[in-house]
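Reading a protein record of the kind used here takes only a little practice. To see the layout at work, look at the sequence and tokens printed below.
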Amino acid sequence: MKTTVAALAAMLFCAGAQAGVTQEQIDYWTLQYTGAELPQSLAQCGDPKIPDATFATRESSAVVERFTRWSACYQAAVDRLTLQGAPINNVPADVRFAMTVEQYRTAARRADVAYARAVDHIAAEAAPVIARFDAWAGRTAAWQRRAGWSSGITQMAASYSGGGANYNIVRAIR
């Protein structure tokens, strides 16, 4: 087995060397890679402006609409992290093939850490927005119940309650 792994590593190294991969390229992925290009912020999503409570259907609809837009932007950021496969797959193939087995493992660990950091940043930014929406939904629904209203807004807001489906996705990939 060790002979097979060594032979495979030698073949991959030769393939990478033939592709013109430099030691600097390998060093970037094994020593310097931080994941700076990964989406680590929800700044582009904006703030959905969630009040403490709303007392009119039109206002409630606007809050749900703003949160839904923000949630779609948030989901897109999460998808950019999760749809790329294993983090090591972002290392160009010719560079991966030029690495030794140990360099590959080091680059994979480094990429895993960078992705975990990006997920943590996005989750930390999302948590207060989701908490504000959950609080708004609870207060608005309570007011509507006291007022004797039965509106679709209460049901829509309740469907996001409890951390929101999208927030659960981030917790699942951590």
User: Anything to note?
Assistant: Residues 2-173 form one domain. Residues 161-174 have pLDDT under 50 and may be disordered.
